[in-house]
Amino acid sequence: MKIDRIYIIGGPGCGKSYATNKLSRLTGLASFEMDKIYWHREDRNYKIKAPEKERDGKLRNIVKKKRWIIEGIFCSWTKPALEKADLIILLKCKKHLRAARILKRAFKRQFQKGQKKETFSSMIDYLVWNHKWDSNDFLRMEKVLKKYRKKVISFSKADNAVKFIITKRSSN
């Protein structure tokens, strides 16, 4: 199995960015965060979405590349990436673990220059959304991913996904 285009998808705080960054370092594949094209580039608090035309154009330019890792929580507007991916990794982890990681990440961002930052209000909204993720958004995501089931593999731990991909890539 040739694996040059990977889409890592899953709920908030499941390790998508961690897996993507690790894989990019180990494989040399360029990595792309869908949050960076979904949210307006000048927005600092995750409140202003990028215009759809701009967002979709950026996605099309990424998908045209021969080798990439895309990570994100989105599956409705990212169908071109899902279709082009050689492999789709679905990361699923427990709600409480996601919440802890969300809080840790938000805290760290408060001290990082140039990072988008959650407000207290947006953090509460984010945690509520995370709590409802499994019974709402995850079900919609699974429905979209059924179309691509032959190339979807689920993992509960990001490190296991990384090991799997490294093993598969080295066996080619």
Topology overview:
Elements: E1 5-10, H1 16-27, E2 31-33, H2 34-38, H3 52-63, E3 68-72, H4 79-84, E4 87-91, H5 95-109, H6 120-133, H7 137-145, E5 152-155, H8 158-170
Parallel strand pairs: 1-3, 1-4, 2-3, 4-5
Helix pairs in contact: 1-8, 5-6
Structure description:
The structure is a single chain. The chain is an alpha/beta fold. It has a single domain, classed as P-loop containing nucleotide triphosphate hydrolases (Rossmann fold, 3-Layer(aba) Sandwich), CATH 3.40.50.300. Helices cover 50% and strands 13% of the residues. The protein contains 8 helices and 5 strands; from the N terminus they run E-H-E-H-H-E-H-E-H-H-H-E-H. A 5-stranded parallel sheet has the order 2-3-1-4-5, sandwiched between helices. The protein is globular, with a radius of gyration of 16 Å. The relative contact order is 0.23. The mean pLDDT is 85.
Supply the CATH architecture: 3-Layer(aba) Sandwich
Q: Roughly how many Å apart are the termini?
A: 7 Å
CATH fold group: Rossmann fold
The helix tally amounts to: 8
Shape: globular
The proportion of residues in beta strands is 5-15%
Overall number of domains:
1
Class by helix and strand content?
Answer: alpha/beta
**CATH superfamily membership:** P-loop containing nucleotide triphosphate hydrolases
**At the first level of CATH, what is the class?**
Alpha Beta
Helix content: 40-55%
> Order of SSEs, N→C?
EHEHHEHEHHHEH
| Beta strands, count | 5
Sketch the major β-sheet. Answer: 5 strands, parallel
Q: What order do the strands of the largest sheet run in, or round the barrel if closed?
A: 2-3-1-4-5
Q: What is the radius of gyration?
A: 16 Å
Uncertain ranges: none
Mean pLDDT: 85
